[in-house]
Amino acid sequence: MGKPKVFVTRVIPNDGLDQIRAFCDATVWEDELPPPREVILRETRDADGLVSLLTDKIDGELMDACPRLRVVSNYAVGFDNLDIPAGSSRGILMGNTPGVLTETTADFAFALLMASARRIVEGADYVRADRWKTWGPMLLMGHDVHHATLGLVGLGRIGVEMAKRARGFEMRVIYYDVIRHEDFEQEYGLTYAPLEDVLAQADFVSVHTPLTPETHHLMNRERFALMKPSAILINTSRGPVVDADALLEALQSGQIAGAALDVTEPEPLAADSPLVQLPNCLVVPHIASASRVTRGKMADIAARNLIAGLTGEALPAGLNNDALGQGRSTLPRDW
Ligand code: DGY
């Protein structure tokens, strides 16, 4: 008996890769850049499992071209790159990596908030450019974080952790979500408000929604127009939740004071793109979950999801475990 054949679209930490290599006949794409689609198609054509990244589009066309594929394990909590209904209708199990990156991502979102409010990167650039000649009474003045109002757009796991961090700075926290969470309101002293009110009142707006057709360009021209001219936008969710052209206009016109983006539309952004060039826009390369421990835990879950799917079990972090026992998940195993 052989081992199940899998394709892993990038090198992930050994916390997961070792498990995958022990259980499977694994082909791992070693380049820093994602494999082109034709490579994913070629390498997955006769594979039983696939470990994908958020940069890989896994859709029905790919599934049809890979008739043995029974499990897709996404190395990310976000899964807007996966077509879940397409997987379910074929009995292909799909999983993600929730929970383990929540606090790490919230730490980073709060770091972006602090860095943009207090102009830390601009300050470091100023010193590197040898412009620091004296203590300046007006030099690089920013915005206070303590006692300011934080507006959360989306109150999932990461939004809640962001609220907990804000409490330490004695911030007032207001939030909008499609579902009201009265338990969190009580526990963390949050106030629910319609999105328009959150945007109008917040000194910092931090976006924590998944990317769905409903949240695509949620932050658009009309919504930026509601924000205070002193407000700062933080985005650690997905780039297309924010309309990049509208954000650029809002920053250039002084409609809002600043932005700090871990995610962008498109991704990556070139160094000469207008948002990157703006002094009041801090852009970093989608690294909010990038602590060694967290990326290791994500790899571990991704491996366990993959192996569970290959052995015909429900995925520990499954997105469509109800597809178990249907379609491809019932194919005979020859390993
Ligand atoms: C995710 O997991 O969705 C993040 O964007 C990357 O860790």
The distinct ligands, each listed once, are: (2R)-2,3-dihydroxypropanoic acid
What is the architecture of the largest domain at the second tier of CATH? 3-Layer(aba) Sandwich
**Structural class based on helices, strands and sheet pairing:** alpha/beta
Shape: elongated
Share of helix, binned = 25-40%
Q: Radius of gyration over alpha carbons?
A: 22 Å
The overall pLDDT, averaged over residues, is: 98
Per DSSP E runs of 2 or more residues, the count of β-strands stands at: 12
| Strand and helix order | EHEHEHEHEHHEHEHEHEHEHEHEH
How many domains in all?
2
Our measurement of the CA-to-CA distance between the termini, rounded to an integer number of angstroms, reads 5 Å
CATH superfamily of the largest domain: NAD(P)-binding Rossmann-like Domain
- Going across the biggest sheet, name each strand in turn: 8-7-6-9-10-11-12
Just give the CATH class of the largest domain. Alpha Beta
